[in-house]
């Protein structure tokens, strides 16, 4: 996952915890091989929806490969939660604009070795 997508997820965590329903999203991510069976089961067993979303966004997705963010957006759209994917894309656009305007350091778009 790109650094900018990790930042988008971090900056929208509270919104996601309050707004999305992860059950169907988890199934979609499992089918797309973003989640392993044991990860999915652990997330489904969380005591609250907020705890499941927190674990998914902060821990699982950032470690799930380069397609994790786009699959997460697809999962939100396919589970009638496109309002959340639109929110994430808006946040990404805001961050990219700040970088272009020089208000942010450019390591998110072009990381140096």
Provide a compact summary of the structure.
With 113 residues, the protein is an all-alpha fold. The protein contains 7 helices and no strands.
Q: What level of helicity do the residues show?
A: 55-70%
> Globular, elongated, flat, extended or rod-shaped: what is the shape?
globular
Which structural class fits the helix and strand makeup? Answer: mainly alpha
**How many structural domains does the protein architecture include?**
1
List keywords for this structure.
Death Domain, Fas; mainly alpha; 67% helix
Report on this structure.
The structure is a single chain. The chain is mainly α and 113 residues long. Helix 2 packs antiparallel against helix 5, helix 3 packs antiparallel against helix 4 and helix 3 crosses helix 6. The two termini are 16 Å apart.
Topology of this structure?
Elements: H1 3-11, H2 13-19, H3 22-31, H4 37-44, H5 49-60, H6 68-78, H7 82-100
Helix pairs in contact: 1-7, 2-5, 3-4, 3-6, 4-5, 6-7
């Amino acid at each position: 996952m790109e650094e900018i997508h990790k930042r988008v997820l971090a900056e929208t965590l509270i919104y996601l915890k309050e707004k999305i329903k992860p059950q169907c999203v988890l199934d979609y991510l499992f089918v797309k091989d973003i989640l392993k069976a044991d990860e999915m089961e652990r997330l489904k067993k969380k005591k609250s929806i907020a705890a499941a979303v927190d674990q998914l966004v902060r821990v699982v997705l950032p470690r799930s490969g380069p397609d994790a963010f786009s699959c997460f957006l697809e999962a939100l759209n396919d589970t009638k939660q496109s309002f959340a994917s639109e929110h994430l894309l808006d946040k990404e656009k805001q961050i990219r604009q700040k970088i272009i305007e020089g208000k942010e350091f450019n390591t998110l778009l072009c990381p140096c070795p």
